[in-house]
Design a protein that fits this description.
Length: about 375
């Protein structure tokens, strides 16, 4: 038996399965359209992060292989994105131009079928969502190497928006130029966080190269594409978009480098199917007296509420006062979280709740095959 004769029945089987998949996908899309009509009638949003997290958790829980959960999550995000598109066009603002890690995070969270709105700054992302030009926004909040993104933290304090979700992506930085060499290169551009994430490599390999900041890695790549004396640090996608050649790959100082992004919306998210695995984000200040921070945070320990993060930013009043940013595990709808927050509020000089929202943890625990989401 020839190889083609051996493959023919298997290929015919795949063709049959593909036909059935197309039928089922369209059947799912019809149901999604009906859901969209109901949502439109009662004024519900098209994108429901808590519902999508629940769908992904169920899909992973039913997976018996050989496909890893990571692959199924990516496939189902695109399926949900396509079905969402039948309900309404979804516009999402991100830190642009094209080719940034923010754009990658947007596609990972929402799917490739959304209408991306590249923005020149983090402030512009906030502004587009606040004004209604975009339904949602996505902004970087922290990096595993460089820590918090200060501009995002500052705008979270000012905004009326809510955090409705989060996602994280691995960060791989590349040095790129128009020529593909470093000959004649006098300066390198990148986002401040990216420069910090590559500082050891830069010190070892190009210590004399002037380092300048850009609003985003995509903007850095654009600048390098316009001047043969400039280099940029950005992702591989940016090199393709702006016609640059990669001189060195994976120049980040840590191989486990990841950035976490927040999804911003005008309305808070509903509790997920696993509210104990949701996250609640808060900004608070405490009275200026000894022990006030300890006393304010004590209710979380008393009620067994896990704090997942604690950062501070100057209040910018010239009086050495600070705002504290914290994430706690659990949804505000949970009784113990609600009780802890009531007592916590009493010990604060000010308190702003940015919302409770599903995290990747909501469906990651269903993965028993070790795939890295």
């Amino acid at each position: 038996m020839s190889v083609n004769e051996e493959l023919l029945p298997l290929r015919n089987k795949i063709d049959g399965l593909d036909s059935e998949l197309v039928r089922l996908l369209n059947e799912r899309a019809e149901v999604a359209k009906e859901i969209g009509e109901i949502k439109a009638r009662v004024g519900l949003p098209v994108y429901r992060p808590e519902r999508e997290a629940e769908v992904l958790k169920k899909i992973c829980g039913k997976n018996e292989g050989p496909l890893p959960n990571e692959s199924l999550v990516a496939i189902w995000r695109e399926v949900m994105c396509a079905c969402r598109g039948l309900e309404s066009e979804l516009k999402v603002a991100y830190l642009g131009p094209r080719g940034t890690f923010s754009e990658q995070a947007m596609i990972r969270q929402f799917g490739s079928g959304v209408v991306g709105m590249p923005s020149g700054s983090i402030e512009e992302v906030f502004r587009k969502v606040e004004s209604g030009d975009a339904a949602y926004g996505i902004v970087p909040i922290e990096n595993s190497t460089e820590g918090a993104v200060n501009r995002t933290m500052d705008y979270l304090l000012k905004t009326s928006l809510f955090i409705v979700g989060e996602c994280s992506i691995p960060i791989q930085h590349n040095l790129m130029t128009r020529s593909g060499t470093m000959e004649g290169i006098t300066r390198v551009y990148s986002h401040p966080q990216s420069l910090g994430q590559c500082v050891q490599w830069l010190n070892r390999n190009v210590p004399s190269l002037e380092r300048l900041t850009a609003e985003s890695n995509g903007e850095a790549a654009r600048l390098a594409s316009e001047n043969p004396a400039y280099a940029a640090i950005a992702g591989e996608v940016a090199a393709k978009i702006f016609g640059l050649q990669i001189v060195a790959t994976n120049i980040q100082d840590s191989n486990t480098n990841r950035t976490r992004f927040l999804i911003l919306g005008r309305e808070p998210a509903e509790p997920s199917a696993n509210p104990q695995e949701d996250k609640t984000s808060l900004i608070f200040s405490v009275p200026h007296r000894a022990g006030s921070l300890y006393q304010a945070l004590k209710p979380f320990d008393d009620f067994g509420v896990s704090m997942m993060r604690l950062d501070s930013r100057p209040a910018k009043r010239g009086t050495w006062e600070y705002f504290f940013y914290t994430d706690i595990e659990g949804n505000m709808s949970e009784p113990k979280i609600r009780e802890a927050l009531e007592i916590f509020r009493e010990g604060c000089a000010s308190l702003k709740c940015l919302g409770s929202y599903p995290t990747e943890k909501n469906f990651r625990r269903a993965d028993t095959k070790g795939s890295n989401l």
